Amino acid sequence: MTTRQEGQYKAVPESLAVVQALVNTQYGQGRYAHTELTSPEQLRAWLVGYGLLKEGEPVSEGDLRRVLQLREALRSLLRANVEKEVLTSPIGVLNHLASAAPLKVRFHDDGRGTLEPDIAGVDGALASLIGEVFTAMINGTWGRLKVCRYERCQKAFYDTSKNRSGVWCSMARCGSRQKARAYRHRSRVAQD
Ligand SMILES: [Zn+2]
């Protein structure tokens, strides 16, 4: 791998940043919880903000449900990038959502081709997100997008480490918390 290619992994690619942002509309538990997208109005503002929906297009409760289904299915897939085991449960959800989210190939003036939604509205936004996931799987960046191994966090992060071995969104915060929990657990077991 050349230095220039390594340099490309310093930050999450723009196309995957939106997928990461979607997953991170929810993470953490208790007082560390972060929660967005609790109403169709919030979802509309979020999608418009990321250029996935045109201003004024309708967003229903059903749309919100489907986007949250996609978010949690993607979180499960990203967990597999840390735990190296493929969970079958999100696959059915993803296939179901993808079947209603048609994509087409579009070639640009610079000769590049991209996948674009072939449908308007929130269906198009779902198609766009699914297209970004698929494209990242092909170009090799997908394996670097992960969710934090600390089960009370589960925040999506982009692993920039050379050997792709990162498992915490933050070693200082989540890595040490998990280790402290494991230590307490071990000492409890030892006392029993
Ligand atoms: Zn974390």
Automatic annotation (TrEMBL):
Residues 144-186 form the Zinc finger CGNR domain. Pfam families: ABATE (PF07336), zf-CGNR (PF11706). Signal peptide: none annotated. This is Zinc finger CGNR domain-containing protein.
